[in-house]
Amino acid sequence: MQQLDPLIVNKIISYCEYQERCESDVKKKLRTLEVKDAVPYLQRLRDARFVDDARFTRIFIDSRYKRWGKNKLLLELRKRNISKDIYQPMLDELQDGDDYMQAIENAATKKWKSIKGKSLMERKSKLIRFLLGKGFEMDKIRSVVGKLQE
């Protein structure tokens, strides 16, 4: 078995202890530390349960779903190379909840107060663009925006 550099092991453990990390985050950090072979370090972190993509995904979704929609969460998880088998059930569970629709309504209501526009249609289109940028789905946005009044 390959001997691991204790200095790098300590740095990477500290990195993982600071906040929950996924494997791709740890790989990037190991590249910045100029580690040639990241596999033994990753295996050591997995064995010690410092890195767990399922745990990271659960925490990531739970901490952001009130501000971000499913599409933005999906994009960020794909960017971090999280397996679809891990994130898809969690996102499906999230989308079925009433909290998700409440999050869209809260974001829409809060933004609606600050949107300026010459007509109601212009204000609604600005709100729709804002909510799409947050990653919410168009069908859910339409139902929320339809409820809003001037």
Write structural notes for this entry.
There is one protein chain. The protein has 150 residues and is mainly alpha-helical. Among the domains are: 1-51; 98-147. It is built from 9 helices and no strands. Helix 4 (53-64) runs parallel beside helix 6, helix 5 (70-79) packs antiparallel against helix 6 (84-96) and helix 7 packs across helix 9 (138-147). It starts with 5 loop residues before the first helix and ends with a helix. 20% of the residues are buried.
Please give the largest β-sheet.
none
Question: Which series of helices and strands comes N to C?
Answer: HHHHHHHHH
Tell me what portion of residues adopts beta-strand conformation: under 5%
Q: CA-to-CA gap between the ends? A: 68 Å
Q: Give the tally of β-strands.
A: 0
pLDDT averaged residue by residue: 89
Query: What is the count of DSSP helices, taking H or I runs of 4+ residues?
Result: 9
